[in-house]
Amino acid sequence: SPQQVAAEPKSLPLASDSAPAKVVAPEGKAVAGVSPARQPNAMPAHAKPTLVPDPPKPATLAGEIELPPGMQSPPVPRPPLWDRGGSRWRPGAFDVRTFKSKQEGTLGRFRQCARAGTWSRLHQDHFDWWMWPIEDGSQARYNVLSQADVDALKADVEWRAGYLEANRLCAAAWGWDLEAADRIQSPMRGQGWTSWDVRIAKMVRSLWLFEEVEAFNSLQKFAVSLVWNEKRGKSFRYGGICLDEILAMRLPRR
């Protein structure tokens, strides 16, 4: 029989001659020793998504009030003046009759504006000092300087009724239904926000001092609605003074 010759074994391909081996890894797993760019199913750099930071979250106050993104948290409300040793000077004695007399005249003009539908005229006058008493108004004779002053006014049934009605009419002139705690759905001509920050700040603080819970909660809700809408996330201000404490006030206060 012819002599059998062993077949020469084929030479193995050199690494330089072979196609690169396919690297396989379980889905979502990286292969050890392989650069990120050569990982299985690696996306080319130009196709990788750009990381976008999360938008700022609304600031949340105690009591579940949300403020617009980027708006700074409001300052801690100032305690009543009589709780922090402030001045108790006024020109003359405290007299409920003085407040009632001034309130009666101003409230009459409010009612006239409401009847005539001339809402824009309501906010053209200056009356905050006696209509919404606070402790540190610029007309000292109308300031309340103690809890006793507050209690004396609240105890007068006629004064308190006029006080709440004035708040309701003033809010209506801004397009806010104080009793429903919501925007007036079909506002009349002239009913809208007048950018009078200091007035709403005095109203909210006065309602807080007099602890009128329902009216206070409603008007503060309107203030929050304003910073989300008309004010576009900007603070309430009077010149260089920030008035945002009205957003942080809570009842009961004592």
Layout of helices and strands:
Layout: E1 59-61, E2 65-67, H1 96-116, H2 119-122, H3 128-131, H4 147-155, H5 157-173, E3 176-177, E4 182-183, H6 197-209, H7 213-228, E5 237-238, E6 241-242
Helix pairs in contact: 1-5, 6-7
Describe this entry's structure for a reader:
The protein is mainly alpha-helical. Helices cover 33% and strands 6% of the residues. It is built from seven helices and six strands. A two-stranded antiparallel sheet has the order 1-2. The protein has a two-stranded antiparallel sheet with strand order 3-4. Strands 5-6 form a two-stranded antiparallel ribbon. A hairpin with a 2-residue loop joins strand 5 and strand 6 (241-242). Helix 1 packs parallel to helix 5 (157-173) and helix 6 runs antiparallel to helix 7. The protein is globular and about 45 Å long.
